[in-house]
Amino acid sequence: MFYEGLEADNSKTYWTAHKDVYDGCVRGPMSDLAAELAPLVRAEPKVFRPHRDVRFSKDKSPYKTHQGAFFEVASGVGYYVHVDAGGLFTAAGFYAHSRDQTARFRAAVDAPSTGVELEKIVRTLTRHGFEPGGDRVKTRPRGCPADHPRLELMRHEALTAGRRHAAGPELEGRAAFDLVRTDWRRLRPLVDWVETNVGPFEAD
Fold this sequence. Notes:
The protein is of the alpha+beta class and 204 residues long. It is 46% helix and 19% strand. The chain has a six-stranded antiparallel beta sheet with strand order 1-2-3-4-6-5, covered by helices on one side.
């Protein structure tokens, strides 16, 4: 697989020698998949560039070892999919976050009605194999009591949920589309909750 080789040799030499494989077996199929998925969430996909931004990173490897696409339904909020050497990853939630957005999120988590609703959504997603993610503080937010009933959610500055699928025949062809569609349908309550209670990203 293309990405197994890139993980072993993340260099311009490898990339140049295998660019036709990337274009035909990675970028092309991902672009086709993204175009087919877009109507499901009514969002234009952004298929990410393969080059890493190494300006402020100690890791100077020039290329990403996965190919991802993001479907933004509100600023900073949406659905995500990527392929890599290990298989397929699906996710959704809110990624970019301003101080105002994080404040709105925590206020909604703190409120009993919306907070309990989110708890149930996350619990259901966890049962289906999704793992909560997103930036979070290590301890607890300032002013949040140590015995808060939803302390783990209060720690989040942004909230996503994602699920990995190991590489295999079940990810080939039409099966990949069906799998992403199923996962995104399960993730929709999380995105809907974020759109209703948090809103779009606003630059600080």
